[in-house]
Specification:
The complex is a heterodimer of chains A (about 220) and B (about 180). By secondary structure, chain A is of the alpha+beta class. Chain A is built from three helices and 13 strands; from the N terminus they run αβββββαββββαββββ. Chain A folds into two domains: about 35-125; about 125-215, Sandwich (Immunoglobulin-like), CATH 2.60.40. Chain A has helices at about 1-30, 90-95, 145-150, and strands at about 30-40, 50-60, 65, 75, 80-90, 95-110, 110-125, 125-135, 140-145, 175-180, 185-190, 195-200, 210-215. In chain A, the strands form three sheets. A six-stranded mixed sheet of chain A has the order 4-5-1-10-8-13. In chain A, strands 3-2-6-7 form a four-stranded antiparallel sheet, with no helix packed on it. In chain A, strands 9-11-12 form a three-stranded antiparallel sheet. In chain A, about 25% of the residues are buried. Mean pLDDT of chain A is about 80; it is low at about 20-25. Chain B has one domain (about 1-110, about 145-180). In chain B, a hairpin with a 7-residue loop joins strand 1 (about 95) and strand 2. The chains are: A alpha+beta (about 220), B mainly alpha (about 180). The interface of A and B includes residues 78, 144, 145, 185 and 208 of A.
């Protein structure tokens, strides 16, 4: 009788450890997120040539608990920047925004000088978009429809695939994967063995559908 | 007559003080993404300023003819009606509701990519449908900074005038009525 109880407790213990490990592993894993950063921090407009962004998450005690890698590849659109960043899930789950620092180049009489600018808070995208394909393993890219119409509608994607790099979803090497987006209409581009297919995703608001799915068949 | 005078004076005080506080606490009537502190603060300050002006000039108001007071009150009430209708019209024209999401505040005139987008898709509603609410918001912020600022100031000017004219007309009549008691 005691043996049965002991085995039951052991099974429950092992199960909870495995589940917790899976949750921790999921929280540590990164997910691709797309952000808009305006070239105007409320006080003045950036006149420098921005070359790098760094994002930092501040915990409830006011201490930084995560800092992004130096983000040097992004899309500049008129007066704002469309930035792709890989963020740990734990940060996304617990924060509404992250702190942003930009580095710009300022022209001087002897060349260029780097200027560090504190931007302030950047709102994190909250809609989780699951991107699936059949068969699995396709590379995926998320491009805002407006940028797609301006930059990619008349482009040979096979020849110009380097231009797509800033939009690649890095959460996993291929489908099935996911990314966090805001209420921007995206062109979801899939590539498998040199074949490109795309669809347009019009996201529903976060409070209506926080998790949304797109999929394509090759 | 004394009761009417008190009623008009209280109404004037209410129109001067309550709207500003209501805006500061509830954001009512403020265009999306505009500062409720700016709107509430300006309306509160100008309401109190109008009351002070009326109080300082009460001797002049009491000694003025009823015809002049009637004329000033009527002009003030007509201005109130024009401003109220104008504000409602402008608000409905410039603020586009997005179902289940935050509304978008468009400037009176558009520039650059925003203008091109509206021309391409035919309307602001269609543009939001094609580009998404958040992308259109960013394009408004980045291409139409000055139009947006001018539009916000125009909205603020009309909005404060609604309450200032009400305060003025009721206060004017209240002081004049107290003179006739």
């Amino acid at each position: 009788m005691h043996m049965k109880k002991l085995i039951t407790i052991l099974i429950l213990l092992v199960t909870s450890i495995v589940t917790q490990a899976q949750i921790d592993s999921r929280n540590d894993s990164i997910i691709t997120t797309y952000l808009h950063i305006n070239a105007d921090n409320g006080n003045s407009k950036w006149t420098y040539n921005i070359i790098q962004f760094t994002l930092t998450n501040i915990d409830s005690l006011g201490k930084p608990n995560w800092e992004s890698k130096k983000i040097t590849e992004f899309e500049k659109e008129d007066d704002y920047y469309f930035v792709k960043v890989n963020i740990p899930i734990s940060v996304l789950r617990n924060s509404r925004d992250v702190w942003c620092e930009a580095i710009g180049l300022s022209k001087t009489s002897i060349g260029f000088d780097t200027i560090i600018m504190d931007y302030g808070g950047v709102k994190l995208s909250k809609i989780e978009l699951f991107i699936n394909s059949k068969p699995e393993g396709a590379e995926t890219y998320l491009i805002s429809k407006r940028i797609w119409e301006k930059q990619f509608s008349n482009v040979n994607l096979v020849k110009d695939d380097a231009r797509l790099r800033n939009f690649k979803v890095n959460t996993k090497p291929g489908t099935n994967t996911s990314a966090f987006i805001d209420e921007t209409v995206f062109v979801v581009l899939f590539e498998m063995n040199g074949v490109y297919k795309h669809l347009i995703h019009k996201p529903r608001p976060f409070n209506v559908e926080p998790q949304q799915t797109v999929w394509i068949k090759f | 007559m004394k009761n009417i005078s008190s009623f008009l004076s209280i109404a004037s005080g209410v129109f001067a003080v309550i709207p500003g506080i209501a805006i500061l606490t509830s954001n009512v009537g403020v265009p999306p993404n505009s500062s409720k502190a700016l709107f509430g603060g300006v309306i509160e300050a100008l309401g109190v300023f109008t009351l002070m002006l009326l109080w300082l000039n009460r001797s002049w108001i009491k000694s003025s003819s009823i015809i002049l007071i009637n004329r000033l009150s009527l002009i003030s009430i007509i201005t109130f009606i024009i401003c109220l209708f104008g504000y409602i019209f402008l608000y409905n024209y410039l603020v586009v509701e997005v179902v289940d999401s935050d509304s978008l505040f468009f400037p009176l005139w558009t520039n650059g990519e925003l203008q091109e987008g509206i021309l391409k898709y035919g309307s602001r509603y269609e543009l939001i449908g094609e580009w998404g609410r958040d992308d259109v918001y960013k394009v408004i912020q980045s291409t139409s900074e000055i139009p947006l600022m001018v539009t916000t100031l125009l909205m603020l000017f009309i909005y404060q005038l609604i309450f200032v004219t009400l305060t003025f007309s009721f206060g004017l009549l209240g002081i004049k009525c107290s003179d006739n008691n």
